Give the backbone structure.
Amino acid sequence: LTAAEASDAKRAYEFLRRCESTLRRRENKGVSVLPSAPTEQRKFSIHMSYDDFDTLRAEYITAREKIHALYQRQIKTRVA
């Protein structure tokens, strides 16, 4: 990995772990899915220090895509 790729991956991973941790603390159980109800989305956004759920969701999707692309490039292609 380049230094930039490693840095991006680290930031994406830390963000996703923070989301997961926040969700699990709020639900007090093993939950790793973003809330679907608007009121829960708002609460989750506030807990994550975001003004709105759409911005948080966009960052969540971007982080997942970065990790997935890195996996595809660096791990899956080497194992196959």
Remarks:
- The chain has a mean pLDDT of 89.
- The longest helix spans residues 53-79.
- Helices lie at 3-27, 38-47, 53-79.
- The CA atoms of residues 19 and 63 lie 11 Å apart.
